[in-house]
Design goal:
The structure is a single chain. By secondary structure, this protein is mainly beta. The protein has one domain (about 1-485): Beta Barrel (Porin). About 15% of the residues lie in helices and about 55% in strands. It is built from seven helices and 23 strands. The chain has helices spanning about 20, 70-75, 120-130, 230-235, 240-250, 310-325, 465-485, and strands at about 10-15, 45-60, 80-100, 105-120, 145, 150-165, 170-200, 205-220, 255-265, 270-280, 280-285, 285-300, 325-330, 335-340, 340-355, 355-365, 370-385, 385-400, 405-415, 420-425, 435, 440, 450-460. A hairpin with a 2-residue loop joins strand 15 and strand 16. The model is unreliable at about 1-20, about 305-310 and about 465-470 (pLDDT under 50).
């Protein structure tokens, strides 16, 4: 049973955002920290990470701002779009072991899914009000540019191998090599999507409606496999095992590197930093696209106030719909440039006592659907044997979409020898409630994200050095002697 004094098995069950996951950067005893900093001080001898999932759903603003007076809300929005971004990371394999006293070797396989939907605010206001101005009157010179409407998705599979070396009691450095495969990349984008109305000198109007864009895909599939969706499906259904293996070898990929270090200039001070995703951008052209290209202009349009039973604007849109041209042929796409998931972290921590520390951290994170820069104040504490509590306040400095400040809490505890539970969340203050009097749900004014993750890790911690154990034993004896002096 003595071995269990030095070993633990970690079971991770978390609810956290990608931004909140940065709280792991300053934690010790959690192997997932190496994903953010290969030079992190984790004090583990061996671990095996079983599949775990981390998800985050982020809105441009709190959900409460979309409810109530929807028309008035969208009229007051000044941003070009309202965005919903999603990130889903699945840890397929994460294993590492200590080689000798000072070397740590680790490998992993992760799947990353990013998605972004951008609702053009001009399009939302047009759907709510049509061509009417703030006073409810039809504007004969209406201009509606809806080209910011977009949907993008990215799925990548990343494999990595890394090593960490403890150079001396003050320095430890680490590096990892990543090979990332692009399973799917693309989306729906518009070069031009507008509806304009122009008043003519003769009192009539000219209406113009255009939709020019494409649905593009990049990955293992290619337009050479078929001229349309039916031919592509038929091609894939008839592939042999050998052809499938050859197809896998054609998946676009790129390389990147992670580096990190931890430095202790003094016993209680810990300086640590990392750069993740170092590497050149990659260009891919394997894939296909489906294009939409249509425009319709009509002159002599007149707003007819008489009750003729025909809505002139509805008739115009019906004419456009009937003439809409969508080229369903799979065409060669233009070249797509992709870059690695990138992050920079830098932090300093001061140990108040054994396993208790406070710290400040700066993070810059960039991935296909979301990027941000933030600073955080953190607290990490070992309250009792087998119980670790961590918390952080994060302030976002900039980002690809608006993000409110957040509070994060992580709890890691041993629930059964040798099992340990890890739970974290950045949404404690954002949980919906229920008003029994009105029988309606109450959405907090701060609810701008929904997130969780779940996973399972098997971790064996390293043994303490004999000198350290002897020092702790001597300190315990001295403390007891002070409390119970001999007569």
């Amino acid at each position: 049973m003595k071995k269990f004094l030095f070993f633990a098995v970690a079971v991770a069950l978390t609810a956290s955002a990608n931004a909140q996951e940065s709280l792991l950067f300053g934690m010790r005893g959690n192997p997932n920290t190496l994903k953010m900093n290969p030079g992190a001080e984790i004090r583990t001898a061996f671990w095996l990470g079983l599949p775990n999932v981390t998800t985050n759903l982020q809105f441009t603003r709190p959900l409460s701002q979309y409810l109530g007076d929807v028309n008035g809300n969208f009229t007051g929005f000044t941003t070009p779009t309202e965005q919903i971004t999603a990130q889903l990371d699945a840890e397929i394999l994460n294993v590492g072991t200590k080689l000798g006293k000072n070397v740590l070797l680790f490998v992993g396989i992760r799947n990353h899914l990013d998605a972004r939907f951008a609702l053009d605010n001009d399009l939302a206001r047009f759907a709510l009000n049509g061509m009417r101005d703030l006073n409810g009157n039809i504007d004969p010179n209406y201009r509606g540019n809806f080209s910011d409407l977009a949907f993008e998705v990215s799925e990548r599979l990343s494999t990595n191998i890394g090593v960490q070396v403890k150079l001396n009691p003050k320095w430890r450095v680490g590096a990892a090599y990543n090979r990332t495969f692009i399973l799917a990349e693309g989306g729906v984008r518009f070069d031009d999507l507008h509806f304009n109305s122009t008043a003519l000198p003769n009192g009539l109007n000219e209406l113009s409606l255009a939709a020019q864009g494409s649905l593009a895909y990049f990955g293992v599939l290619d337009h050479s496999m078929g001229q349309n969706a039916d031919e592509l499906e038929n091609y894939l259904s008839n592939l042999s095992s050998e052809e499938i293996r050859e197809l896998v070898n054609l998946i676009p990929s790129y390389s990147s590197f992670d580096v990190g270090a931890t430095y202790r200039p003094m016993k209680r001070l810990r300086l640590t930093g990392s750069a993740v995703g170092l590497g050149a951008r990659a260009s891919i052209s394997r894939g296909f696209q489906i294009s939409v290209n249509n425009a319709l202009t009509t002159s002599g349009f007149q707003w007819n106030a008489a009750d003729t039973g025909v809505d002139p604007l509805e008739s115009f849109f019906q004419e456009f719909q009937d003439s809409l041209k969508v080229n369903m042929d799979l065409l060669s796409p233009s070249t797509q440039t992709v870059k690695p998931f990138q992050a920079i972290h830098a932090a300093t921590y001061w140990d108040l006592a054994k396993w208790h520390s406070v710290g400040l951290r700066y993070s810059h994170v960039a991935r296909p659907s979301l990027s941000y820069s933030a600073i955080a104040a953190e607290y990490h504490a070992n309250l009792m044997k087998g119980l670790q509590l961590s918390g952080a306040y994060t302030r976002f400095l900039s980002g690809s979409q608006l993000m409110s400040d957040q509070y994060s809490v992580a709890l890691q505890m041993r629930i059964l020898p040798p099992l340990q539970l890890y739970f974290a969340s950045s949404a404690f203050g954002m949980l919906p409630s229920y008003d029994a009097a009105t029988q309606t749900p109450l959405i907090p004014t701060t609810l701008d994200r929904v997130n969780f993750s779940i996973g399972l890790n098997l971790v064996f911690f390293e043994r303490k050095p004999r000198a350290e154990k002897s020092g702790e034993t001597l300190k315990i004896i001295k403390d007891k002697a002070k409390k119970h002096p001999s007569n």
